[in-house]
Amino acid sequence: MKKILALGLLFLMIILPANAADTKEVKPVKNLIVLIPDGTSLATVSTARWLQWYSNPDKPKLNIDPYLCGTVRTHSSNAPIGDSAPTTSCYMTGYASRTGYVSTYPVSDPDNDIYPTDPERAYQPLITVLEAAKLLDHKASGLVFTCEFPHATPADCSAHSYNRGKYEWIAPQMAHNDLSVVIGGGTSLLPAESEAYLKSNGYNVYKDDLKAMRADNGDKMWALFGAKEMDYDLDRNPNEQPSLEEMTTMAIEKLSRNENGFFLMVEGSKIDWAAHGNDPVGMATDFLAFDKACGVALDFARKNGETAVVILPDHGNSGISIGVNRCKGYDKLTKDQLFSQFAKYKMTAQGFARKVNEIPNSEVQRLFREYAGFELNEQELHALNNCKDYKNSPIPQEQRSADGVEPSMYSGSLTSFMAKLMTSKTCFGFTTGGHTGEEVFLAAYHPQGTLPLGMLTNVELNKYLCSVMGLSGKLDGLTAQYFAKHTDVFNGYKYELKQPKEEGGWPTLIVKNKKKQLTITPFTNIVKAGKKGKEEIRLNSVIVYVDKNNTFYLPQTLVDYLK
User: Fold this and answer.
1) Co-location of 420 and 454 in the same domain
2) Of the candidates 84, 103, 31, 89, which has an alpha carbon nearest to the alpha carbon of residue 542?
3) DSSP of 408-441, one letter per residue?
4) Range of 286's domain?
């Protein structure tokens, strides 16, 4: 009996790390898939699970359920509540950062910093797990998402900026970072130069061409759908846009051809967008679409035997709850009373708003009967007709107002009104339309069972990802190597920052040494050599310029071209 107990304890010690932060026993694997449902609070997961079970009695559990193993405390460098930019950035780099910062070292805020920061490193780009896997081990890299491609979470994996809104800085970095596969939104945001670079380097680039994407047999591909973000899954036309599940399947198929392995990040982007809009239908249904993508990743990992999967949100959002004080006796309601109406919705709030604007006012009640399971009462119809952006209202634009509209229903926005209307028929509630600071769930699969357990900080989560990829302790060295200040790299050489002629343009760094010259432009991996710039040097990382300190961050080895 003692031998059996001893063997059992030994087995547990081998399979499970001693504590959440202990990564010494984590076994490196060939492939890593990280799946992030943006802005997903635990109550969102519960709502989605209930919706699935109510609609499909034979499916009481989600694909992620058997793999839930802990929670993650996610925050900014100087505040407990963070937006997607610094929170995913921390997963990717190991450093908490400021609101809006994309894989960039934070400016020091000594009175509020949660962890000590080094003022000397402010604004320095930070190497990500994706970049490190590509640089050190020549792994393939992929991004799948439903937002526009330069948005915070995909950008956090493959670009660097102190301002997440600077798409003109971020988009070219993502194109020039030589990612193997990119599938998501943003056809209008790919610069012509970036598209030309991709095509000239062997990429197939598709815009709103689902048929061509499905027929693609190459290893390198960008496929974008929608001018900016893609549609919510519930509103999606399956003949025009792929599901997150299909996008994930295609990315894995292509990336797994690389003999060195791969890193893939999959984001359920618009769960967060629906949460900002307090739209429980969009939140739940987009999470269920995300869970299907998790199923694809987990199924591949179990069969492959060399792949780890980590699933976790970047932060919470909206404070959604199942149960709200406006519903008397809500804690005693049956599952039918709580979920029957919710299960009848066939479009998100945005989908309803778009549809209402496409049909005559006389058809509104039919629409709601067919797609929502109820008709608008007199007050609700009055509130609808007074929405500022309702195109088919019988009330002239200049006469619309909040007068006579139920305060809880009034909204200038048609989409916001739809979200309030649909929520009012349920017993769900919201505390905010913004991000929240509670811990988020953690789920994981590892072929050798070395899992992250318990409550991890977002910094500790990065340590786990690095251990899984065999990158422990290597990110800082790579950051110093690839993102050194130009003043240090070219110390002793003659250089100048030539300012752009057009307002809003980028400066050019020109470095000279006798007969040799480098002409360096930011947000790309191409450097021109020679006084006439006829020779091109192609780097395996991107160059970043930061206007705040007028500094180029670039590889230390660039100086060798001048010797």
Assistant:
1) no
2) 103
3) TT--SSHHHHHHHHHHHTTTEE-S-SSEE-S-EE
4) 2-58+127-320+433-481
**Residue 113 within a domain:** no
Residue 221's identity, in one-letter code, is M
Q: Is the dihedral of CA 4, 5, 8, 10 positive or negative?
A: negative
Q: 353, 416 in Cβ contact below 8 A?
A: no
* β pairing state of 508-513 and 494-498: antiparallel
- Are residues 214 and 310 part of one domain? yes
Pairing label, strands 31-37, 307-311? parallel
CB-based contact 329:285 (threshold 8 Å): no
Number of domains in the chain: 3
**What is the pLDDT tens value at each position of the chain, 563 positions in all?**
444 444 443 433 334 443 444 667 899 999 999 999 999 999 999 999 999 999 999 999 999 999 999 999 999 999 999 999 999 999 999 999 999 999 999 999 999 999 999 999 999 999 999 999 999 999 999 999 999 999 999 999 999 999 999 999 999 999 999 999 999 999 999 999 999 999 999 999 999 999 999 999 999 999 999 999 999 999 999 999 999 999 999 999 999 999 999 999 999 999 999 999 999 999 999 999 999 999 999 999 999 999 999 999 999 999 999 999 999 999 999 999 999 999 999 999 999 999 999 999 999 999 999 999 999 999 999 999 999 999 999 999 999 988 878 877 777 799 999 999 999 999 999 999 999 999 999 999 999 999 999 999 999 999 999 999 999 999 999 999 999 999 999 999 999 999 888 877 899 999 999 889 999 999 999 999 987 778 999 999 999 999 999 999 999 999 999 98
Pair 136, 227 in one domain: yes
Residues in Cβ contact with 136 at an 8 Å cutoff, skipping those fewer than 6 apart: 471, 474, 478
CATH of the domain at 522: 3.30.457
CB-count burial class (<10 Å; 0-12, 13-18, 19+) for 209: middle
